[in-house]
Amino acid sequence: MKKFINKLDDVLIESLSGFAQAHADLVNLSLNPHFLSRKKPAANKVALISGGGSGHEPLHAGYIGYGMLDAACPGHVFTSPTPDQMLTAAEHIASDKGVLFIVKNYAGDVMNFEMAAEMLSVENATVYTSDDCAVVNSTYTEGRRGVAGTVIVEKCVGSLAETGASLADCKALGEKVNVRTSSMGVALTSCTVPAAGRPTFAIGDNEIEMGVGIHGEPGRHRVKMQEADAIVNECVKAILADWQQKQLCLKGQPEALLLVNGFGATPLMELYLIYHSAATLLKKHGIAISRSLVGNYTTALDMAGASVSLCLLDDEIKHHWDSPVHTAALRWGC
Amino acid sequence: MKKFINKLDDVLIESLSGFAQAHADLVNLSLNPHFLSRKKPAANKVALISGGGSGHEPLHAGYIGYGMLDAACPGHVFTSPTPDQMLTAAEHIASDKGVLFIVKNYAGDVMNFEMAAEMLSVENATVYTSDDCAVVNSTYTEGRRGVAGTVIVEKCVGSLAETGASLADCKALGEKVNVRTSSMGVALTSCTVPAAGRPTFAIGDNEIEMGVGIHGEPGRHRVKMQEADAIVNECVKAILADWQQKQLCLKGQPEALLLVNGFGATPLMELYLIYHSAATLLKKHGIAISRSLVGNYTTALDMAGASVSLCLLDDEIKHHWDSPVHTAALRWGC
């Protein structure tokens, strides 16, 4: 294993410290327990808190700032944060409007965020993201996994929260965006967790894992390497089948946001090629792509691979996607 | 080789098409010859054109837009663009103010941009970037290589050009930023050029290449894998020695921009750890880091590795770094 690290025990804190130093205008890092929060806490709004295992950067700390999250609680690599992190973060930033947790649906995260919610004296609610349509139930989940679509949820709810909207309205928008978003990923290689020191799973030189999870969990099946168009076709088909399953109305010309997300080790050149392939295919299916995002937004350490996420837009979601945001990883209009 | 591609011959055009579709609000893609240019051409300003071999994305197309480049000419992977690309792009976007080429110092790029400059009827000038302090002369260069510091040059000159500044003033600022910027990179793995289908160079499981170039060219030496702090220390030492060599004045408390750049396959978590290590070290050397950039800004396809760039700031450079920019890969203030 070759990684830019010092002592294994210090990886997380050194990385978080670097993040907080590089973005000192945006975030504060609190220690014991660890959480990151906005430099300029926003008053009189629902406080949005997310978190999860580290290794998915820029998720979630990279989305702290105006128009998105108020705080993020990073666990160790691929390990849930502990309830005291969420509790302390929530008590630190909560206003009278309450706290909304945005949680990717993994058993450990769900349990620990639930415990924090129970202990929290402030009014609170939780949105669970479950956009991954590859598998139902998996290594770390009951039900579907939350993956890159979480970024779209955090962006839209973040925008609504800035307007002073109620906790119930923020939760409702988060759930709406989650339902309207489906994702499917594929791995060309494994990732390597620093503390493990070896690849999470074995995969042949000519094999890929369709529907892989963002920790390297198994997906739908292991197949031979194929051309990009064939891989993208399987992802898009799975997503559109999922939309049908969810009974999303596709009358008229549906409009969508297309997110092509790199898992960490895939060149941007290939991500744009995937985008081209997916956009061409979706056009044939009568779907108009009016919003796009291409890059490494929800990663799996050093995994070579990518995911395709599609969010069915309406005027409300478009408005909140387009609104100003100022975070380390997403920034526009500010 | 596992990559998200279809036919080898189509990689570049499919990727560029995806880029142009995903950023249709920012850029137009022209074909035969290939170049990308601003959707809304800017009048009455020096036109800034860069380019070079593909594989370094987001460099250069990702920097087209307000406050940065007017056009970019992508060659095939790690191959110089041809003079007709630069010539056609320049004729397409030039105003009376002239054209400034920003060219990384590689023999092929230098030759082809020079040929375009000779054929171009519009007044023009060229800034060559050469921030890599690892080696003088190398596989593809006479003199030093231009690497990630090019992004800082393009950002600052882009800002100045928007004010209607003269060609001479834009060139002068570009050369000033280049001289004040030094970079040093390190590779943990090779990259794989799609058309070659195998790693560009062999490297042992416990070896790293210090001073590597962004095409996998040899650097200073091959050493055993070390802790991040030791690697960063060698980079920072080389950079500060280079500053001394260039007789940059370091009196008082020098202020610098620290860019930690990933080569394509290095997790953000490790890049922030490198940032933390470099910032800690630079502080000990009495250097204040007042501007930061961490991420994949000048890549080498799927190479695991990173570079550290340091730009000695003054009020002029700070002003132009901070000014609004709206491109696919860098955006703030707009």
Give structural notes.
2 copies of one chain form a homodimer. The first copy, chain A, is of the alpha/beta class and 334 residues long. The first copy, chain A, folds into 2 domains: 173 residues, Rossmann fold; 142 residues, Hypothetical Protein Tm841, Chain: A,domain 3, CATH 3.30.1180.20. In chain A, 32% of the residues lie in helices and 23% in strands. Chain A has a 6-stranded mixed beta sheet, with helices on both faces. In chain A, α7 links the parallel β10 and β11. The longest helix of chain A has 18 residues. The model of chain A has no long low-confidence stretch (mean pLDDT 97). The interface between A and B is large, with 63 and 63 residues.
Give short descriptive properties of this protein:
globular; Hypothetical Protein Tm841, Chain: A,domain 3; Rossmann fold; 32% helix; 6-stranded mixed β-sheet; 2 domains; 334 residues; 14 strands
